[in-house]
Amino acid sequence: MIIDSHMHINSIVLDDKTKYINAINKNFAIESVINVGLNYASSKESIDISKSNFKFFSSVGIHPLYIENQDLKNLYDLAISPKVVAIGEIGLDNIKGNFEEQKRYLIEQITIANILHLPVIIHSNNCNRLVIDIFERFVKPKYGCVFHCFQPDLEDLKYLVYNGFYISFAGRITYNNAKKSIEVLNAVPNNLFLVETDSPYISPEPLRKEINESSNIKYIIKKIAEIKRCSYEEIERITSENTKKMFRRLTL
Ligand SMILES: [Zn+2]
Q: Separation of 8 CA from ligand 1 center, angstroms?
């Protein structure tokens, strides 16, 4: 069965959540989803959803574009909830905002993850080298790490693979201009890649104009199976095994 390792059903991005939650609950192909927080409120909401919907697990964290007025002390209280499987998404984003503050939040949240023995989900928008630099100079995730929606670069990939960190592929791998992502996919060992929708963002082909949903993960798996010349079932099996290894609390 499929695990969507990274999606968002929260107040920032969707008004009518019930419809999307029910669609996942009723979909027999989906084993579970990791509903990723972007700030304190959406992380708390993710935990609340997980309490009444058995397929839903949570990741809690402050995204680099949402750090304003976010107190990291509150994150500890959230992170000890039983269905929290990771800290994230956290990272660096060069679009806007206070970059020094983004770095401080990233360092502090990796530290929290290490204290609580949790893996981290990294968001890096054109900042892979800077994130790696923080790992080397300040604090490195000790209990697993995934670069979600990995921006393809074979040099960065070498570092991630050397450290046993995961790379996750979303809808972009299905696009016509995905040449570099395909190169990266072919270079990633089979034990180190995951699949995700990042829904409601980044809808895969052939549904690029629609709001993305977890069920669309099948298009991503299908495309990866084509690229790797193996069966759909094989990719489904590999990615769900990898996801359970990375997010150990999914199986507790
Ligand atoms: Zn995301």
A: 7
* C-alpha 202 – ligand 1 centre gap (Å): 10
The conformational region for residue 126 under phi > 0 = left, psi -120 to 50 = alpha, else beta, is left
For 36-51, b where at least 16 C-beta lie within 10 A, e where not — what string? Answer: bbbbbebbbbbbebbe
Expressed in angstroms and rounded, the spacing between residue 199 Cα and the centre of ligand 1 is 8
Q: Measure 168 CA to ligand 1 centroid, in angstroms.
A: 11
Asked if 189 and 244 count as a contact pair (C-beta separation under 8 A), the reply is no
Report how far residue 248's alpha carbon sits from residue 144's, in angstroms, rounded to the nearest whole number: 9
| Nearest-angstrom CA–CA distance, 19 and 240 | 25
Distance 89 CA to ligand 1 centre (A): 7
Cα(222)–Cα(235) distance, rounded to whole angstroms?
8
Q: How far, in Å, is the centroid of ligand 1 from the Cα of 146?
A: 12
Q: List pLDDT tens digits, range 163-195.
A: 999 999 999 999 998 999 999 999 999 999 999
What is the mean predicted confidence (pLDDT) over 223-230? 96
Distance in Å, CA 212 to ligand 1 centroid: 12
pTM > 0.90: yes
Return d(Cα 190, Cα 186) in angstroms, integer: 9
> Hey, what domains does the chain have and what are their CATH numbers?
2-251 (3.20.20.140)
